[in-house]
Fold:
Amino acid sequence: MKAKKYRREILLKAHRYAKYQQDFLGVVLCKSEYTIAEAERAVKAFFKDKERD
Structure:
């Protein structure tokens, strides 16, 4: 079974990403659709160094 894909706009509004600046998140999530796992990997890869502060 394929993982469900979500539109970028839906992910940008998702509660799980509320702690991130939306302008940066919009750049990180640049494809039109993502699975939750794909989106999580992209966000964590970009923000990993910034979250330590």
About this structure: The helical segments are 8-13, 22-28, 36-47. The mean pLDDT is 91. Residues 6-52 form one domain. DSSP finds three helices and two strands in the chain.
